[in-house]
Amino acid sequence: MRKGTDATFTARFKRDFVLNKYLYLMMVPVLAYYVTFHYAPMYGAIIAFKEYAPMKGILGSDWVGLDNFKAFFGSYYFWRILKNTVLISLYSLCFEFPAPIILAILINELTNKRFQRFVQTVTYMPYFISLVVICGMIKDFTNSGGVINTLFTYFGANDTAMLQKPELFRSIYILSEIWQKIGWESIIYLAALMSIDQEQYEAARIDGASRWKQIWHITLPGILPTISIMFILRVGNLLNVGWEKIILLYNPSTYDTADVISSFVYRKGLLEFGWSYSSAVGLFNSVINLLLLIAANRLSRKMSENSLW
Amino acid sequence: MKNSYSDKVFVGIIHAVLLALVIITLYPMIYVTFASISDAAQLITYKGFLYKPLGFSVEAYKSVFHNPAILKGYRNTLFILVFGVTTNLIVTALGAYVLSRRNVMWNKVFIFMVVLTMFFSGGLIPLYLVVKQVGLIDSLWATILPFTVNTFNLIIMRTAFMTVPESLEESAKIDGANHFTILFRIIIPLSMPVIAVMILYYAVEKWNGWFYASIFIKERELYPLQLTLREILIANNTDAMSSGANAADQFQIGETIKYATIMVASVPILVLYPFVQKYFVKGVMIGAVKG
User: Fold this and answer.
1) Which of A85, A168, A226, B8 could cross-link to A192 by cystine, CB 3.0-4.6 Å?
2) How far is CA B3 from CA A106, A167, A206, A225, B8, in A?
3) B227 occurs within a structural domain
């Protein structure tokens, strides 16, 4: 409360309520949604510290402290799913993250506008195909006798169902991610490229800089802020490999390399009904994600001026 | 001179790389198209790339369109699409409007509350328990209500609403307009591009969504299209589709049915997409400003 406004909190609230009663009314459904489907589950996450029994409900179930966490950290699965999650994330950071940046730069170099638009239209397209269909195609193409499989047999590979091979899972996962998202994710970099001052290129050309040098000295620095923001987000999501694609592609014979934290939570919780145990795993994941994001943001703010908040 | 020569090579390489990317992107879709109209008996023994359909047959499409599971899937998905996107739009617009107001008492609290959900969540299991608690299990609304507002979309919409000049609202207020009038008569008509973007984003999300339906909906009658697809494509279960034929035919036709279902489920979006592409791109741009 600033000086001069001697109104108390309740008085201010009352006045605001009368003045903006429709605003409050508008906020009702929005708040109801966030409270029910975001904050209630956050509260529900306390079952991670309980032994949840559906009959007793969330409140009535018995507290078990950190038992669920201990069981998870001590289990054989802990290292396996942590390793898989981190590896898939790191591979994606190394290969999937730079791909759209390179694509955007290449598209930007095109002088033929029609070809440029054509490349954009085509490469954005797979983003809109449903994941079920994408995974169905992956499964079909990498199956024995499938297109990709046959292609590899030309180079001497054996014709086997590739999705049954644990050692191939990550490559299939990452490559198909790139295939589906490279175009769409390049949009944000293309937007950044458009805001680069064209006079810089003009000046560089007069100085006799080659196209390659122009990319290196003007284009890349020009989109560096965008790259760093995207990088922070990516690092913040390092332990956040979504379950949807994993559970469509994996099977028991590839769990060794394919099972990640989120798919583990899904399987233990919803298929095997280990509510509390799997909530503990999920909560561990959420907390680590949040910490990673904060750390990445802080690091980026220190090293450059770019940060999320 | 040396530079311009190397530049030409450079440009040539760029064209080659992009052309290769275009082919890699398009070929799987072309393959599926060819395979879906191929003769089942020929396709099953064929290995490798298809450059044209093998024979010609629309048997697969016939069985897809006569299949009750696919038709029900379409109907359920349509329900989710219509009611889902409507709910999404209304509630997102209300939230975006409230959050775009300046000098409103609870604004900072609301924004914090909304943004926090982007960075932290209770997790899958607690969400499931909540949905169960409110009695949405085995209801199509289970794929709608728990996803009423996509926070990212909310922020995009708020950003767009904030660009509407304040003077317009001020004059409306003087004329006695309340917040509903301002939102529906001034802000929304002036923000049609962003509304279009939102409709498209939400519609794609609804059309393609399968995961939450798979955990919240056990009743087969209520399966949306993508869940039926999952059974056919991932679990490789085409038996139900080709019932009536004998075992050998069933196996053969199952192969083409897979491709025909992919087409049936993807073509609506891919046909529509080139016309609405610019709106999608616009959405990314608006989102990028705020980040």
Assistant:
1) A226
2) 19, 45, 12, 29, 9
3) no
